């Protein structure tokens, strides 16, 4: 069991996070501010500190350097991401941009938690979603195996090719376009590229373009001068500048409005950023990785994505296959997750029954690795015995004999059949006219990013206001 200090002033969020961490076997001590945390506790007595950046009084970044060897993981909104990036440069272990999924947080903490662990050489796996290497983080075990790279698990032939390509493109400075359905691991791959690149010591800044309101995205990315955008009481650097020397990931790049696409193209052509309202541009040294689940070629054809930008983005390209096209990887990932979670929780490893393995391999996993992770986590929490069967995973037995053909086109775009998705659809359709996206996400217990993704996947676009 690890001892985690959680510093968050929003009681609802703090309670939710505490429950999550306790469910994962951690001992959680809470504080509403840096001052309370320092007054009430010995900051050096924790295995890890998880703190919001924006707090009443001192910011969460003030904890960096005060917690002995414990890694400090920061939670940040777009408004404070620059402060978080700076804090990582000063020794914070990592940061997570809000909104984030519970699975993302758990994976990140697993990666950074030290404590009573086996020696690195005995570790079963490398944590997924691993981020900026931290001075205080435990060393990541070497990844010499062909079926694993920087936290990415996958022994199928197609994933081995992806790994080979990642190794090849990482040292390059060229822009990389990562394509793949939601949850296939695009951000994870981008982090792997960053960690294998000469920029690994500097910031990795992921930006989820679809989660930033359309009216703010230009200022968030490129910064602004005082008074240039509503509410700009002082000049601010954008996320491009925050990533100086490091790597900027533009996730869901296809969602950028045309005006921002044009500005991004200019940035790629000149290597210079001009803040909104500024007359002078400044040179910024950033490697850009763009990711999308959309068909950019079709978007270029119908005029919704600039062709010049598309060609600038896809200097290098990597396509991540959906999980249903690599059933062996689904089982490999599930077993790797079981081992890693058990290790993080100090529990004996759980195993899958033969039926569960067959069902995992045969399931379509429309939400890909993220959906598989959620199913495995849920099963682990509910498991009483040392084996996990079909029921705990919420899967049906595969047809007998199991179909050898990949379950190629049984998902995207089709009406959802399972009851959770049915509930999601009903809830969103019933409430979307009176609730904001943030409220809907909160009531459903998911992040805004997850809400947006599910809307995309299930074909429930946001109503125009
Ligand atoms: N190859 C992998 N091995 C192990 N875990 C992985 C792998 N790829 C992704 N994951 C895990 O799966 C989850 C989803 O990955 P990620 O966020 O990178 O996907 P994505 O394609 O960027 O999703 P989205 O399109 O929804 O933003 C994360 O928790 C990540 O840690």
Quickly list its features.
465 residues, alpha/beta, Rossmann fold, Helicase, Ruva Protein, domain 3, 4 domains, 5-stranded parallel beta sheet, globular, transcription, Sigma_54_int_dom_ATP-bd_1, phosphoprotein, P-loop_NTPase, nucleotide-binding
- The CATH class of the largest domain is Alpha Beta
Q: What ions, cofactors and ligands are bound?
A: adenosine-5'-triphosphate
Q: Flag low-confidence runs.
A: 116-144, 401-419
Kindly identify the CATH topology of the largest domain: Rossmann fold
What level of helicity do the residues show?
25-40%
What's the CATH architecture of the largest domain? 3-Layer(aba) Sandwich
Number of separate structural domains:
4
User: How many distinct beta strands?
Assistant: 16
What structural category characterises the helix and strand content? Answer: alpha/beta
Oligomer kind: single chain
> Helix tally?
18
Q: Please summarize the sheet with the most strands.
A: 5 strands, parallel
Residue-averaged pLDDT: 82
What's the Cα radius of gyration?
A: 22 Å
- Bin the strand percentage: 5-15%
What coarse outline follows from CA principal-axis ratios? globular
Would you identify the CATH H-level superfamily of the largest domain? P-loop containing nucleotide triphosphate hydrolases
Strand order of the largest sheet: 2-1-3-4-5
Distance N terminus to C terminus? 47 Å
């Amino acid at each position: 069991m690890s001892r985690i200090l959680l510093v968050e002033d929003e009681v609802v969020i703090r309670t939710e996070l505490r429950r999550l961490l306790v469910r994962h076997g951690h001992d959680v001590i809470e504080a509403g501010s840096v001052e309370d945390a320092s007054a009430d506790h010995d900051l050096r007595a924790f295995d890890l500190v998880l703190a919001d950046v924006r707090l009443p009084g001192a910011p969460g970044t003030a904890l960096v350097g005060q917690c002995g060897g414990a890694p400090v993981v920061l939670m940040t909104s777009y408004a404070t991401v620059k402060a978080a990036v700076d804090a990582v440069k000063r020794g914070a272990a990592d940061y997570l941009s809000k909104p984030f999924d519970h699975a993302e947080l758990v994976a990140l903490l697993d990666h950074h938690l030290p404590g009573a662990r086996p020696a690195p050489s005995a570790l079963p796996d490398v944590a997924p979603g691993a981020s900026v290497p931290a001075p205080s983080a435990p060393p990541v075990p070497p990844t010499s195996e062909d079926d694993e790279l920087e936290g990415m698990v996958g022994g199928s032939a197609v994933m081995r090719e992806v790994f080979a390509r990642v190794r090849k493109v990482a040292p390059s400075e060229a822009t990389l376009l990562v394509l793949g359905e939601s949850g296939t691991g695009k951000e994870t791959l981008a982090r792997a590229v960053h960690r294998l690149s000469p920029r690994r010591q500097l910031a990795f800044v992921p930006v989820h373009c679809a989660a930033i309101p359309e009216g703010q995205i230009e200022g968030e990315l490129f910064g602004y001068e005082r008074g240039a955008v509503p509410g700009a009481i002082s000049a601010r650097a954008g996320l491009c500048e925050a990533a100086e020397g490091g790597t900027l990931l533009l996730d869901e790049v296809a969602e950028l409005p045309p005006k921002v696409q044009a500005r991004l193209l200019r940035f790629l052509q000149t290597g210079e950023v001009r803040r909104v309202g500024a007359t002078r541009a400044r040179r910024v040294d950033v490697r850009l990785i763009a990711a999308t689940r959309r068909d950019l070629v079709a978007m270029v054809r119908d005029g919704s994505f600039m062709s010049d930008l598309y060609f600038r983005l896809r200097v290098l390209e990597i396509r991540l296959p959906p999980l249903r096209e690599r059933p062996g990887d689904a089982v490999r990932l599930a077993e790797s997750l079981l081992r890693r979670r058990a290790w993080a929780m100090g529990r004996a490893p759980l195993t899958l029954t033969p039926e569960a393995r067959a069902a995992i391999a045969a399931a379509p996993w429309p939400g890909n690795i993220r959906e598989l992770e959620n199913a495995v986590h849920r099963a682990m929490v509910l498991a009483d015995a040392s084996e996990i069967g079909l029921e705990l995973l919420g899967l049906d037995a595969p047809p007998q004999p199991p179909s050898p053909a990949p379950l190629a086109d049984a998902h995207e775009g089709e009406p959802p059949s399972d009851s959770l998705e049915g509930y999601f659809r009903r809830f969103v359709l019933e409430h979307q006219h009176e609730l904001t996206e943030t409220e809907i996400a909160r009531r459903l217990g998911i992040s805004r990013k997850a809400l947006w993704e599910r809307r995309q996947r299930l074909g429930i676009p946001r109503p125009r206001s």
